[in-house]
Amino acid sequence: MQDKLTLMIPGPTPVPETVLLAMSRHPIGHRSAEFQKIVKRTTEQLKWLHQTSGDVLVMSGSGTAAMEAGIINVLSRGDKVLCGDNGKFGERWVKLSKAFGLEVQVIKAEWGQPLDPEAFRAALEADTAKEIRAVILTHSETSTGVINDLQTIAAHVRAHGTALTIADCVTSLGACDVPMDAWGLDVVGSGSQKGYMMPPGLAFVGMSDRAWTAYERSDLPKFYLDLGKYRKAAHADSNPFTPPVNLYFALEAALEMMQQEGLESIVARHARHRAAAQAGMTAMGLPLYAAAGHGSPAITAVAPEGVDAEVLRKAVKERFDILLAGGQDHLKGKVFRIGHLGFVCDRDVLTAVAAIEATLQGLGLHKGTPGAGMAATAAALAG
Ligand SMILES: Cc1ncc(COP(=O)(O)O)c(C=O)c1O
Questions:
Q1: Among 7, 163, 198, 300, which has the highest number of CB atoms less than 10 A from its own CB?
Q2: Ligand 1, residues at Cβ distance < 6 Å
C-alpha cells in the first residue's frame, strides 16, 4: 500500500514526524548567526549522547566516512593496528586500514560469535615494544546482530598504555550505553541514519584528548576529512565546508527528542525490544543467529531452517509492508534481520513478529503453536 512501508532494517531507520517537519524548511546560510546557534546547541547535545567532555565533530557523509576520518586522523603510514573482525563491518575496517598502508593484525571470530576480549588482551600484552598504535573494532556488528564487549576490550587497550581504541558505534550509539569517557574510547564513529532517528547524510566522530595528541603525529593523507579543520570550526560554532543545513535542523530536533526520553529509557527500550524479538523468534522455532547472550539491542538476526530467508522476507514485505533486512554475503538466503534501532516502539516489534508469524503460517512453515511468537513477544514486552 502506498506510504505504508515500515522500515525494520538496521538503517536507514524510521524518522519521527517532528524531525521530518524540522527539516522541511528553506535552507539558511551556513555562516549566519542563526546557524551558529544550531551548531553550538547540537555540539552540546552530541557530547551528551557520547557522554564525553571531548569533541564530537559533524561532517557530511555516512558511517564509513566517520570511520575513515577516525582512522586517517590518528594514524600514520605503516602503523601497526589490531582489527577485530567478526562480520561484514569488521572486514570493512580491515580493508580500510590496509588501503591506507597500515600493518594490520586481525583478531577474528566466527560470524555470529562475539570477539574474544582475551584475544585482545593477549595480543596487547605480547606487544612489549608498544608498536600497536590502535585497536579498531565494531561495537554492534550489524551483519550478524552481535554486540561486542567494547568496554572490556577498551580497558585492555588502556592497560597497554600506547594504543588507541577506535570504535565503530554506528549501530550502538542511541541503542545502548556508550559512555565514551568512562570507557576510555578514543575515537567513536557513527552515522545519522541509525539510532539518531534521522535520514542518512551526517557522519559523527568523537575524539578524546589522546586521539588529538595522536592527530599531531598522523601523516596519512587527508583534506576534506581532516578533523583538525572540523575542530577549529566547531570551536567557533561553525563547519569548515558547506554542511547539509537541513540535516542540522533534523539533528537538533532528533537529539532534543532523545534528551526528553533520556538515555536510560532509550537503552531500556532497545533492550526490551531485543528481548521481545528474540522471544518471538524462539517461540516460533526460528533459531537466532547471534550466540546466546550476545545479541545486539539494535538488530536481531534470525537463521530459519528449511526456508529461504529471502522468500520469507519478501513475503513479509509484500503482504504486510514491513521491510526486514536480508543476510549479507554468504548469509544471503540463510538469515534475515529485524532492525529495532532508533524510532521504534513496542507496537512496531509486536507487528513485525506478528507479520513474520502470519507469513510462516501462510507458507505452512510455522514450527510451533500458531500464535506462540506473538504471545511470547507480548509477554516479553510486558515484562
Ligand atoms: C556497524 C556498521 N558500521 C558501519 C556501517 C557503514 O555505514 P554507512 O553505510 O553509513 O557508511 C554500518 C551500516 O550499516 C554499520 O551497521
A1: 300
A2: 10-11, 62-64, 89, 138, 140, 142, 168, 170-171, 191
